[in-house]
Amino acid sequence: MDITKRDIDNGRAFDWGRTSEDYARYRDIYPQEFYDRILCRGLCSDGQRVLDIGTGTGVIPRNMYRYGAKWTGSDISAEQIEQARRLSDGMDIDYYALPAEKLSFPDGTFDVITACQCMWYFDHSVTAPLFGRLLREGGRLLFLYMAWLPFEDSIAAASEEIVLKYSPEWSGGRETVHPIVIPEEYNDCFELVNREEYRLKVHFTRESWNGRMKACRGVGATLPPERLAEWEEEHTKMLEKTAPPEFDVKHYAAIAELKKYTR
């Protein structure tokens, strides 16, 4: 399913379904600290009902399943949801292939809604009141994010330059540490109760970093097969020349916790 937004990649279409297999294999990369920061807020555990928006291949529900929440995941891509179901075999997780704006559950169904790496895709004029309706009174909306730091990490920088060579419209790079900005549409239903940013190192092999980059929006979700093969050849040669067999890439993560107003 092609997706286009004027403020993302200069309006160039992308389709997460085209890279779902690589996404499933290579993008389950959040370190334990990423999950611990959620748990220390008393969220996503102990019988809470949690909806993960933009779940992709179910990375967040699958990794936090053992902490006792009842998870539901949704994603606009049917191929991503297919991978999520496959990888969640044996887990009691419900998955829906729907855009965030079209979710339909009874009022107050969830204690927590999580949205990781996806809030910029939402129509906030629709999702802000919708998320407010789906949450119980005092429920939490959790925006999550993690990104590599190209101005601090040479491997990340070199990889970004190759992505931009093949997808010059790609707007997902050039990250620096900064807070998650909350769109004003959420002010009517929510108050910001916690926001933090912290640095991480994420471990990769040459293969897994190549796969991680291949599964990004500017590569696997966008490039036609012949250009994708050219990108992969160039990126692999760069890693063989400049990167050791295993290495850490500098990242940062950010969290913004919103609480639904009690009326």
Q: What's the topology here?
A:
Elements: H1 20-26, H2 32-39, E1 49-53, H3 59-64, E2 70-75, H4 78-87, E3 94-97, E4 110-116, H5 124-134, E5 135-148, H6 154-166, E6 190-205, H7 206-214, H8 225-242, E7 246-260
Helices and strands, in N-to-C order? HHEHEHEEHEHEHHE
Q: Which spans of ≥5 residues are poorly predicted at pLDDT below 50? A: none
Structural class: alpha/beta
Strand order of the largest sheet: 3-2-1-4-5-7-6
Query: How far apart, in Å, are the first and last alpha carbons?
Result: 39 Å
* Helical coverage, percent range: 25-40%
Q: Specify the biggest β-sheet.
A: 7 strands, mixed
Which word captures the global form?
globular
What's the tally of helices? 8
Mean pLDDT: 97
* Radius of gyration, in angstroms, nearest whole number: 18 Å
Oligomer: single chain
Strand content: 25-35%
Task: Give a count of the beta strands, DSSP E runs of length 2 or more.
Answer: 7
Task: Briefly characterize the structure.
The chain is an alpha/beta fold.
Note the main attributes of this structure.
263 residues; alpha/beta; 7-stranded mixed sheet; 7 strands; 25% strand; globular
Question: How would you portray this structure in words?
Answer:
The chain has 263 residues and is of the alpha/beta class. It contains 8 helices and 7 strands; from the N terminus they run ααβαβαββαβαβααβ. The chain has helices at residues 20-26, 32-39, 59-64, 78-87, 124-134, 154-166, 206-214, 225-242; strands at 49-53, 70-75, 94-97, 110-116, 135-148, 190-205, 246-260. Helix 3 (59-64) links the parallel strand 1 (49-53) and strand 2. The longest helix is centred in the last third of the chain and has 18 residues, at 225-242.
